[in-house]
Amino acid sequence: MKTKIVSVDFQKDFTAEGGRCYRPRPAVGFIKNTLVPFLEKHNLKIAEIVSDYRQPRPSDPVDLCRPGEWGYESEIPDSVKDKDIWIKCMNSPIWVRDNIGDPTKKPGLPYQDPKRFSEWIEREIGKQSDTEVLLIGLTLDCCVLCTAQEFCFRGYKVKILKEAVDAFSGNEYEKEALCKTPLGNWADAVSWENLSISEIG
């Protein structure tokens, strides 16, 4: 059984000072300074999910992660990133839109495309019979949680790397509570020191 790392919304609007949803979050430093150098050293890649959060997005008035702008940019370097990136437009990755990720065109309304997301998973991650998913990124109480649910619903064994995720608030106590519930219903929280690195593929 191999393990595939999947990064969720590790974009500058969340990770960098000046970002529209920036908070100081310890996971950002861990990913940049510990995880990425390790992956580079061992020539390992991350599958990536990013967001196009332009309006219109019913029920959510926030306008951020706009393609073509600084806040949309991923902080996962190309050296460890798979090329086939999934772009979503709501918290759950099954939500997409017309012109998603295209800064030159007006985005359409969000709609669900679970079939295409499942096809991306099988192509980029592998089958649930031989691949576990290890989630990193932001945020644990929103998009990482929704992504864990979608993988779990498809039969994947899902884990969360504790040092590489944070709650929206960045509060460590809140993260610890979230790792127990509701996250525990869909994923197991694992620590870096207990991770079986040899299984990452």
Keywords, please?
201 residues; alpha/beta; Rossmann fold; six-stranded parallel beta sheet; two-stranded antiparallel ribbon; 5 helices; 8 strands; 20% strand
Notes on the structure:
The protein has a single domain, classed as Rossmann fold, CATH 3.40.50. Helix content is 25%, strand content 20%. The chain is built from five helices and eight strands. The strands form two sheets. The chain has a six-stranded parallel β-sheet with strand order 3-2-1-6-7-8. Strands 4-5 form a two-stranded antiparallel ribbon. The protein is globular.
SSE order and pairing:
Elements: E1 2-8, H1 12-15, H2 26-41, E2 46-51, E3 86-88, E4 95-96, E5 111-112, H3 114-124, E6 131-138, H4 143-153, E7 158-166, H5 172-180, E8 188-190
Could you give me the name of the CATH homologous superfamily? Isochorismatase-like
Question: pLDDT under 50 segments (min length 5)?
Answer: none
The coarse overall form would be globular
Please give the domain count. Answer: 1
Largest beta-sheet details: 6 strands, parallel
Through-space gap between termini:
10 Å
